[in-house]
Every structure is written in structure tokens, then in C-alpha cells.
Design goal:
A hairpin with a 2-residue loop joins strand 1 and strand 2. The chain contains eight helices and eight strands, in the order H-E-E-E-E-H-E-H-H-E-H-E-E-H-H-H. It has a domain of 172 residues: Class II aldolase/adducin N-terminal domain (L-fuculose-1-phosphate Aldolase), CATH 3.40.225.10. The N terminus is likely disordered.
Amino acid sequence: MDALPETGRQGSPDPRISDAEWRQRVDLAACYRLADRYHLGKIIWNHITARVPDAPDQILVFRLGCRYDEVTASNLMKFTLDGRPVGATGSELNQAAFVIHGGLYRARPEINCVMHTHSRGGQGVSILKEGLLPLSQEALSVYDDLAYHDYEGLSDDVAESERLARNLGSMNQMILRNHGLITAGKSVGEAFWRMYILERACALQMDVLATGRELVVPPPELCRKVRAQYDSDFPAGHYEWPALLRELERDCPDYAT
């Protein structure tokens, strides 16, 4: 089989934007479009952010009021890690994006993308006292890599940013109690695929619990084995992200403009 083409990897069309930033913009715009397609968005709410590769103290995010299916590489905005807009008005910045994401980037320099959702399955599991159970292969892929953060109300308290980072620690997924989900990654594709899998695990758990039937729960040693298999053989987003970009290139290539 011939090598599959890369998509969205052209150089920056704007001399004010470096090629590295443009590639990150293309990936982040793709993530918003895919979140919309796979029912991980909330029209204009929630947020996905990505670090600017050659300006690591700056973060890309969509503009407040923009639908996920309207996001393109060129209409993303930037803010600094202390919450100041870069080249845009403050009214265009969703303050919750800074509160929820800012502390994670400050605490984890290896993180380059953070995704936050209010997806149906994730919100359902966030309400359960036991949280996510190791019931499915998807759930086992995040075994011992899942943190929790207690609900504090709408995300408008800047001090919560540090508590979120502290609770995430070194993990890559987090359930916000009574709220939703967060995933983080070294790349946009990694963060997206973690969210896709986490939401599937949560949705399946809610479906299974609704049956009221007795559950088969794998023993901890098997859970750890499956997690290790995923980490070594199927790193998050490595195979999936190029395939997802080809889907967008076919159906809505304007995401990369």
C-alpha cells in the first residue's frame, strides 16, 4: 500500500505566524471540527487549547461565540499563561478556558494540548460516587491514569486553576465531579484521542449500569496489563490522528485555512 498523504501541513500563509504555530493551529482547528463531528462539543461552550510551539507561554483557543464547526486555523486567538489576550479583545476570550487550562500548562511543560468537554457519558460518570469503573477495554486504557477534581461551581475563580493542576498531577485524564472531562497530551492528536476513548468508556458504563445486571470486573493485575499494552503498542493518537485528518481533508478542508 502506498504511503498515506499528510494533510494540513502546508507552511504558514501569514508572515506574522511561524510555520510551527501554523501547524499547531491546523491541528487545533481539526480538533474542534472532530469534536463537533463526534458529539464532544457544546456548540460554543467548553474549550480545547494548544500551546504555541515557539512561544510556550502562549495558548491558542477559539473565540468566544464561535461554533466548533466554524473554527479554522486562521480564526483562532491567543492568550498568555497569565490570562492576557494576544492580538484580540478581552471580550473574545472565554475566561473559563484560562481558569481550567492555564494552571495545567504552567505545571506541566510537556503538555501541548488540553481538551475539556461536557459530553453526555462523561457528565454521567462524573456524578457517580465510584467514578469510572474498569469495565471495558477503553476504560482499562486509562487505568491508573485518571484523576478527579471536586466541583467548585462555574469556572470563574482563577485560584481553582492551581487546584486543577495539583489534582491532575502527572496523569493525563481527569473527571471533574458533577461537571465533565479533561484530557491532556503532548500533541493535539493525543489529547483528542484520549478524550474520544474516555467518553466511550464513560458512555458504555452508563449504558451497562442502566441494565441493573451483575457486572464482571477484571482483577487489578489484568487492568494494569492492558494499560501497559496500550502504552507500548498503541500510544494515544499515533495511528488515529492522521486517519482523522484525512476525514476532514475529504469532507471540510476549510478547517486548515
